[in-house]
Structure prediction request, 554 residues.
Amino acid sequence: MRETPMQRLLSFILGWGTALLLFFPIAWMVLTSFKSERDATSPNLFFTPSLDSYHEVFARADYLSFALNSVVISVGGTVVALLFAIPAAYAMAFHPTRRTRGTLLWMLSTKMLPPVGVLVPIYLLFRTAGLLDTRSGLVAIYALMNLPIVVWMLFTFYKEVPNEILEAGRMDGAKTAGEVWFLLLPLTLPGVASTGLLSLILCWNEAFWSLNLTSAGAAPLTAFIASFSSPEGLFFAKLSAASTMAVAPILVFGWFSQRQLVQGLTFGAVK
Amino acid sequence: MVAPLLVMPSIIVLLAWMIVPLVMTLWFSFQYYNLVDPSARGFAGIDNYVYLVTDPDFWVSLRTTLVLLASVLVITVGLGTLLAVLFNQPFPGRNIARVLAISPFFVMPTVSALIWKNLLMHPIYGVFGALASMIGLQPVDWFAQFPLASIIAIVSWEWLPFALLILLTAVQSLDHEQKEAARMDGAGPLAQFYFITLPHLSRAIGVVIMIETIFLLTVFAEIFVTTSGGPGNATTNLAFLIYARALLQYDIGGASAGGVVAIILANIVAFFLVRSIARRLEV
Prediction:
């Protein structure tokens, strides 16, 4: 009774129109990745699809090492951030003190420091410590970069756990560690998982520190793709194939975690 | 009693992560310090700042930063609001359409920038050029003729889905009975949008503006892989200027002075963002 068929049709056309328009560059990239290098430079839709570009990208043996760097750095950064954040979020959610509110807001404010503002000291510190172009260096940066978001998201999830459940556990003699491990973690596993997922997405796509602090050894895929910007020859099909492989896993993750993403990225300000 | 012990590690690492580089940036900004000329060290007073503000490149980069920020904000928030309302209407396949529309946000910046530059905007081989020739127009060399507008287009494409995603979440929490009542009272779709939807969204729009501002003030990868700040200094924003000073010219002092300016800019925004989030926070 609410929308007339005309309105639905209009929404359908406009909605799908914009959706396809916004998705077009991604679709075109995937399409181009199956073209030969010669077909790739002309925007025709008729070509013999081939996997040549993928083979060639793989044949540059270093592709796998870039991909591996991305995986190691993203997973490493996320795990380290979670290790710090889980106890902190637990304590603040279940044993809040007068200072908890201030602490949370202060953590949030550390996220506001623009990376470029501290590029110089971080670069010099890394150079002195021999951390330039190392995976562990980026893991540390990514963990610190995402720690405030991770704490906030976990805090929001823990807040939703009814205190009575924990009290029942305490009556049964659970100590704090046991409380976290046996009660809280299973209860909030979906929350921890989606927090980790958001952190993974942010690490995977990060392209300021990865471009500035790595060269060859520890460079992740963001930096590998950037190497296609060199002017000595345009390899559209290979660029597309490498890009498709770099983007695909995170795109799928993103589709599954839209809602948590909103909470995480707005620090719970929009629900 | 264990509670403080559990929070402490996070506080300590974040404090170190914030304070150490901040103090170093401040310190370097008052020093003569060039990595290729180790002999010229020492206290510089405000020389680095004087050099910065008397450098026309700095003002151009500041202007570029603000133009980029304002344009992307207008495009993403404006279109994002309209799209949020659109994607809240029922139509067949809506969920799939939504997923497609928000996808660009998950594409890494270096990929977005290079795909746009090469596959779409390239004057000879790109899709836009082909479309232009098809209707008999001269293909445009986007990055040569409209470098900043090209960057704005790419960054807007990345951030429009973000605005859409956040605003859609906010639209969905809109009270339907209120809209229904307005409709019964004879309010047309436009009036409903203006008097009910928009006020309801104002808070979410504020949050989107502030979060985007934090990130857009320091757009880097998109510029790095497409124009490298050029042609000339047409697309050099503050972030790229600082990067060039530090890692291309090795002028640590000068780059640090720029870094201080970037931090101050970001903090003006951060102040309002933190305040608006604090109002909502229950502990």
Notes: Chain B touches chain A through 106 residues (CB under 8 Å). The CA atoms of residues 76 and 160 of chain B lie 4 Å apart. Chain B has a mean pLDDT of 87.
